[in-house]
Design brief:
Elements lengths: L1 H13 L1 H21 L14 H12 L9 E7 L9 H14 L5 E4 L14 E8 L8 H16 L3 E6 L11 H17 L2 H29 L3 H31 L4 H28 L7 H32 L27 H11 L1 H15 L8 E2 L11 H13 L7 E6 L6 H13 L4 E4 L3 E2 L5 E8 L6 H21 L2 E5 L1 H35 L3 H26 L4 H4 L7 E2 L2 H29 L4 H28 L7 H33 L8 H6 L10 H6 L5 H10 L1
Parallel strand pairs: 5-11
Antiparallel strand pairs: 1-3, 1-4, 2-3, 6-9, 6-10, 7-9, 8-9
C-alpha cells in the first residue's frame, strides 16, 4: 500500500492542475445539486419490529385518510391573573381564535376547548388542538403564518398564548461557538506549523471535503429521506477528521523536507507513510459509522452512512488534494523546525538541540510505567462513576430552551393539566378477531383505569368498520419519567390477559411509547454492535501493527475513554453539574442514541490517534530501535502533531455545544470530552505505559499468522527501493496511475 500511495502522492504533486480541477469540479457539481434539489420533507421516524411501530402501521391501514403522520399544534391559552378562561371576554377571544385556526386549506380539524373539555380544573388554562393534512416540514408558509397570527390576535386581546406541537418547529441555532471552534483550529495549526500557508492547507481541504459531503447530502435529502441532523453530524465529523488527516500528511511532508529530500519526493513519502495511517484510521471510522446499521433503525443508519461518506471524502482529499496544494505552495511550506519570516523565521531558537516536550514526556512514562498506568486507569474510572445512574430517553418540547413558544406551551399544559398531559399514550385495539369488539374495548378501559399512574382513560373511538379502536391514556408522570415507562410495560403485560379473554390485541403507541421502544432497541443492539465494530477494527489493527497485544490494548483503552466520557455526559446533562456553563436549561434523561452513537464515533476517532501515534513507534522498532527507545522516538515525531490534532478536534466538537438543539449540544459535548480523555489520557499516557511494561512482547505475532497476513507496509519499507530510481521515473508512474 505504501508504494501505491507514494506514487499517488507524487502524481498529485506533479499533476496538481489536473487534481485540483477534479476537486473543484466535484465541489461545483455538489453545490449545484444542493441548490437545485427540492426541499426535503419531514424525516420519517420508524422503529421496525417494535410494538409502537406495529400499532402505528395498523392505524395507517384501519383509519385511511386520517393523516396519522400529519402535523399537529396545541394552541395553549392562559387567562390573566385573577381571571378564568370561561369569563365572557376570554371565551369570546378563544372562539375567535378557533374560527381563525380552522380557515386554512391544510387544516383537517380544530377542537373547541369548551366543547372538548380541554379546560383545566382551576379554569386558568385551555387548549385547542389543530390537525393538518401534511407533515410539519411540508406545511405551507401561509399555514404557519395563519397559526402564528391567530395566536398573536389572542395575545393582543389579553390572553397568554403559546403554541406547541410540530407544526411550528423550533429552528436549531448553533451560535457563534461553532465559528470559534474553527478559529481555535486555525490558531493551533499556525502554532504547530509556524506558517500561515501550511496551517491554511488542512483548513482549506477540510472545508472542501465538508462542502462536497454536506452538499451531496442536501441534494439527496428529499430522495433518501435525510433530516437536518444528518448533515449536521456529517459536518461535525467531516470537519474534525478532515483537518486531522490533512494535518498528519502536511506534518510528515515537512519532516521529509527536514531530512533533505526534494519536494516531490517528500510529498510522495508523506502520502506513502502518513497516508497509509490515514487510510487505516479512516477505515476504522467508516466501519464504526456504517456499523450503526446493525441497530436496524433507518434514521440512525442514514446518519451513519452519510457521515461515513464524508469521512471517506476526507481520506481521499488528504491523499490527493493535499499533495497537489503542497505543489502549489512550493517553498512557502517550510521544513519541520523552521518558521515563516512573518512568525519569527530565521531567529535562533532558544531550545535548539534540546529534547522536545514529547520526548521528555515519553521518557518520564518509560521510567515509571506502572505508576502512570494506575493513575490513568483510576482517573478514568472515577470519571465513569456517574454511568451507574444513567437514564435514557428522547428529547421533547420539555427540553427546548425556555425562550421558545414550544417550551412555554409545554410548561403551561403541565401546570394546568398535570405533567403527564404532554405525553399521552395511545392504545390501539385490534378487535378484528373478537366476537365482541365493544366489550373488548370496555375491558381495556376498565383494566387500564385500575393501573397505577393513570389520570384518565378516554372512551374508545372505533373506525368505520368497527374492528379497530383508539383509546387515549393520560399518565400522572411526565413523558420522560421512569414511572411512565413502567406504565407502558404494565399496559402491555395486561394485554396478554385481554387477548386471552376477548381475542383482541392491545398495542401501546404514541410519541412517548415510541421513545421508550427506541431506547430499548438501542440498548438491545449495543452489545452486538460493540462486538461487530470492535471485532472488525481489531482484525484491521492486527493487519496494521502485526501484533496481538497492541490492538487488544487499543480496544480496552477505548472502553475506558468512552465510559469516562459517558460519565461526564451524565454529570452535566442529567445531574446538572456545570449546566449553566454549558447552556443546559433542562436536565433529564440522556438521549437514547447517545451510548451507541458514542461507541461508534469515539471508537473510530480513538483508533485515529492509536494508528497515527503507534505506527511511528512501530516504524522505529522495525528499523532496529529497542522497544522503549521506539516509544520515545514515536513521541518525538508524533506527540506534537497528535496533540494539535486532538485540540483541533476538541475545538470543532465544542463549537456545537452552542447549538439550541439539545441533541446536537449533547453530541458536541460528548465527543469533545471523549476525544480529550482518549487522546491525552489513553493514547498519550496509558498506551506508552502499557507498551513500556510489555517490551518486545507488545510486537509479538504468532508465526503462522504472520505468514497468513498480507503485508500492507504501513512503515514504508518498500519505499527504499523506489526512492533509488525515483529520479526520471515520474512519467512512467503517471502512466501507471492513469491505467489504474
Amino acid at each position: 500500500m505504501a508504494t501505491f500511495l507514494y506514487k499517488l502522492g507524487r502524481f498529485a504533486f506533479r499533476r496538481r492542475h489536473f487534481v485540483a480541477l477534479i476537486w473543484v469540479a466535484l465541489l461545483t457539481l455538489a453545490g449545484v445539486g444542493a441548490a437545485s434539489a427540492p426541499a426535503a420533507g419531514t424525516t420519517s421516524f420508524s422503529i421496525p419490529g417494535t410494538e409502537a411501530q406495529k400499532a402505528f402501521d395498523l392505524l395507517e391501514q384501519r383509519f385511511p385518510g386520517s393523516s396519522a403522520d400529519g402535523a399537529t399544534a396545541r394552541v395553549v391559552f392562559k387567562a390573566p391573573s385573577g381571571e378564568k378562561m370561561d369569563d365572557p371576554g376570554n371565551k369570546a377571544t378563544v372562539k375567535d381564535a378557533v374560527k381563525a385556526l380552522g380557515d386554512g386549506s391544510e387544516v383537517t380539524s380544530v377542537t373547541d376547548p369548551f366543547k372538548s373539555h380541554a379546560v383545566s380544573k382551576d379554569g386558568s388554562v385551555a387548549y385547542a388542538s389543530v390537525s393538518y393534512k401534511v407533515s410539519g416540514m411540508e406545511l405551507k408558509d401561509s399555514s404557519t403564518e395563519a397559526l402564528e397570527e391567530a395566536a398573536q390576535d389572542a395575545r393582543d386581546a389579553g390572553l397568554d398564548v403559546e403554541v406547541g406541537g410540530d407544526a411550528l418547529q423550533a429552528t436549531p441555532e448553533t451560535g457563534s461557538t461553532e465559528i470559534i471552534g474553527i478559529a481555535v483550529a486555525a490558531i493551533v495549526l499556525v502554532i504547530t506549523f509556524g506558517s500561515l500557508i501550511a496551517a491554511g492547507l488542512p483548513l482549506l481541504t477540510a472545508i472542501v471535503g465538508v462542502g462536497i459531503g454536506v452538499s451531496t447530502i442536501t441534494a439527496l435529502a428529499k430522495a433518501l429521506d435525510l433530516g437536518d441532523t444528518t448533515s449536521t453530524l456529517a459536518m461535525m465529523i467531516g470537519l474534525a477528521v478532515g483537518i486531522d488527516y490533512a494535518l498528519f500528511v502536511v506534518s510528515r511532508y515537512r519532516a521529509e523536507l527536514a531530512e533533505g529530500r526534494e519536494r516531490e519526493e517528500a510529498a510522495g513519502r508523506a502520502v506513502g507513510t502518513a497516508g497509509s495511517a490515514v487510510v487505516f484510521a479512516g477505515l476504522t471510522v467508516v466501519i464504526a459509522l456504517v456499523g450503526l446499521s446493525v441497530v436496524n433503525i433507518p434514521m440512525l443508519t442514514k446518519m451513519g452512512v452519510a457521515a461515513a461518506g464524508t469521512v471517506a471524502i476526507a481520506v481521499v482529499i488528504a491523499l490527493t488534494l493535499i499533495p497537489a496544494l503542497l505543489g502549489y505552495a512550493g517553498k512557502k511550506v517550510q521544513p519541520a523546525g523552521k518558521k515563516s519570516k512573518l512568525l519569527g523565521g530565521g531567529r535562533a531558537s532558544k531550545n535548539e538541540g534540546k529534547p522536545n516536550m514529547g520526548t521528555r514526556w515519553a521518557s518520564f512514562i518509560v521510567r515509571r510505567p506502572l505508576a502512570v498506568l494506575l493513575l490513568g486507569v483510576v482517573g478514568l474510572g472515577a470519571a465513569a462513576v456517574p454511568v451507574a445512574s444513567l437514564e435514557l430517553g428522547l428529547p421533547d418540547d420539555g427540553s427546548q430552551p425556555t425562550s421558545t413558544t414550544q417550551r412555554r406551551a409545554y410548561d403551561a399544559l403541565s401546570d394546568g393539566f398535570g405533567p403527564g398531559f404532554n405525553g399521552p399514550l395511545m392504545l390501539v385495539l385490534d378487535a378484528k378477531s373478537s366476537d365482541d369488539p365493544k366489550g373488548a374495548a370496555t375491558q381495556v378501559e376498565d383494566t387500564v383505569k385500575d393501573l397505577n399512574d393513570v389520570v384518565s382513560v378516554s372512551p374508545a373511538a372505533f373506525n368505520k368498520a368497527g374492528d379497530t379502536a383508539t383509546i387515549t391514556v393520560i399518565p400522572d408522570s411526565k413523558p420522560s419519567s421512569v414511572t411512565t415507562e413502567d406504565l407502558v410495560y404494565a399496559i402491555r403485560d395486561a394485554g396478554g390477559d385481554i387477548k386471552a379473554d376477548t381475542d383482541a390485541n392491545v398495542y401501546v403507541t404514541g410519541t412517548t411509547a415510541m421513545n421508550i421502544d427506541f431506547s430499548q432497541k438501542l440498548n438491545d443492539a449495543l452489545v452486538p454492535y460493540l462486538a461487530l465494530v470492535v471485532g472488525l477494527a481489531f482484525l484491521l489493527l492486527i493487519l496494521v501493527f502485526r501484533s496481538i497485544l497492541v490492538p487488544l490494548k487499543a480496544a480496552l483503552g477505548f472502553l475506558l475513554s468512552v465510559m469516562a466520557a459517558l460519565g461526564a455526559v451524565v454529570a452535566v446533562f442529567q445531574w446538572g453539574w456545570l449546566s449553566g456553563l454549558m447552556g443546559v436549561e433542562e436536565t433529564g434523561p440522556i438521549m437514547s442514541m447517545m451510548p451507541i452513537f458514542m461507541v461508534g464515533v469515539v471508537f473510530g476517532l480513538a483508533m485515529d490517534y492509536e494508528v497515527f501515534l503507534v505506527t511511528r513507534m512501530r516504524e522505529a522498532y522495525v528499523h532496529g530501535e529497542k522497544p522503549n527507545q521506539a516509544i520515545v522516538t514515536g513521541f518525538k515525531h508524533g506527540a506534537r502533531v497528535v496533540t494539535a490534532a486532538a485540540v483541533i478536534m476538541i475545538a470543532v466538537f465544542s463549537g456545537f455545544i452552542g447549538s439550541s438543539e439539545s441533541m446536537i449540544k449533547m453530541i458536541g459535548f460528548g465527543l469533545a470530552i471523549a476525544v480529550f480523555f482518549d487522546a491525552f489520557v489513553v493514547r498519550m499516557t496509558i498506551v506508552p505505559a502499557v507498551l513500556a511494561l510489555l517490551g518486545k512482547k507488545a510486537w509479538w505475532l504468532p508465526k503462522w499468522l504472520d505468514r497468513v497476513l498480507p503485508n500492507v507496509d504501513v512503515e514504508g519499507e518498500g519505499l527504499r527501493a523506489l526512492s533509488e530510481k525515483s529520479d526520471g521515473g515520474g512519467k512512467d508512474e503517471d502512466r501507471e496511475l492513469v491505467r489504474v
